[in-house]
Every structure is written in C-alpha cells, then in structure tokens.
Design brief:
Layout (H helix, E strand, L loop, with lengths): L13 H12 L5 H11 L1 H18 L2 E4 L1 H10 L4 E14 L6 H4 L2 E3 L5 E10 L18 H14 L25 E4 L10 E4 L6
Parallel strand pairs: 2-5
Antiparallel strand pairs: 1-6, 2-4, 3-4, 5-6
Helix pairs in contact: 1-6
Length: about 210
C-alpha cells in the first residue's frame, strides 16, 4: 500500500491564505442583509420576540419607564444626564422539537431545510456612547480575519484555544450609584410610544 503524506503549508503563507478565503466570501450576503430578509419573512414571530424581550427587561427592574414630560424634567434638573441609544438584535435558535410553551411555539418557524427555529430578540444598549472620564466604554472585538489567523496558528502549533464570554456587559457592568451619571436609554423604534424613554436603574445587557 502506498503511503500518503500531506504537505503542510509554509507558515509565511498563512496570512495570504486566510485573506484569500475572505475574498472568496465577499460575494455572499452580509449577516445584516440576511437578517433583514428574515424579518420580512417572519414579521409576526420576531415582533412577539421583541415584546417578550421588552417584558423581561421591565420585569428585571433594570429600567424605569419615563414619559416625555418626565424626560423634560430630568433634563432641567440633572446636569450629568446622558442619553444612550439602544438596538434590537434579532436571531434564531435552532431546536429539535416544538417548544411546549405556547408563547415560545408562537415564535417558532420551520425553515426551508425543515429545521425548527425559535425567533429571538435582544435589546442592547450602545454602552460606548456613555461618556466616562478616564475609563474606556467601548468593547473591542477581533475581526473575522484576525480570528482566522489566530485559529490557523493555533492549529499549526497544536495550541489549545479557549474563550470567555461576558453575558452582562453594559457600561463596564457597574451597579448604578448616586455618584454616577444619570442614564436615559432610547429604546429601538417601535418598542415604546414616541417620547417615552427608559431610566437606567441597574446594569443592563449591552
């Protein structure tokens, strides 16, 4: 039997190969474009997901709803008042069986490949918009190209790759205290009536 051998690529070519993979994938739809099409296909299910997320946030005690009149009062009385926008992130979660919960079943669809997928929504705060003196508020992440390079090098050198995730990262995940700025959150369009905002009470996902 002939012995087969696989020639490993030269390390100096790793970056070039990764960039070539990126160029091949540039013709595909972006994740944002694909999700926009999903929203058009399943508006009812994603609307229910948005309502569920809004309800969960209100129940958590993280925010306090304030009317447009109350917003005006806060603007006149709070010198440290800051406004931070929010964004709704829509996604799917693939499940094996139809959910038992009626609420979750109403948000479940079957795609063209026959998969059961639950429509989900996460309302997040754009925490990098908060102005904190002497403290960074952005959350830098690695680019797809950078991640491919790291994984390629790890595979080449037989390194163990580990990852960590912060599930409650908002405004440095600090509890709101009296000496911190007053934060007004502007919910995504369609979540609240015009002029209604959320007063941040404690840390919120973002």
């Amino acid at each position: 039997m002939t012995e087969m051998s696989m020639e490993m690529p030269d390390k100096s070519n790793i970056v070039i190969q990764v960039l070539e993979v990126k160029q091949k994938s540039q013709g595909k739809k972006s994740k944002r474009e694909a999700r926009a099409e999903d929203l058009k296909k399943h508006p009812k299910q994603f609307r229910l997901a948005l309502i569920r997320e809004q309800t969960d946030i209100c129940k958590s005690g993280a925010i306090q709803r304030v009317s447009s009149e109350q917003v005006q009062v806060l603007q006149n009385t709070k010198r440290d008042l800051q406004k931070v926008r929010m964004r709704a992130i829509f996604e799917y979660k693939t499940v094996r069986d139809w959910p038992k919960s009626e609420e979750k079943r109403a948000r479940t669809i079957k795609d063209e490949r026959g998969r059961l997928r639950v429509c989900k929504c996460r309302i997040v705060a754009l925490g990098y918009e908060e102005k904190v003196e002497g403290s960074p508020v952005d959350a830098p992440v690695g680019t797809p190209t950078g991640q491919r390079i790291i994984l390629t090098l790890a595979a080449w050198n037989k390194w163990t790759v580990e990852s960590r995730d912060a599930t409650r990262a908002f405004l440095q995940s600090m509890d709101r205290t009296s000496d911190q700025p007053t934060i007004l959150l502007k919910p995504p369009k369609g979540v609240e009536p015009e002029g209604v905002m959320w007063l941040l009470v404690k840390s919120l996902y973002g």
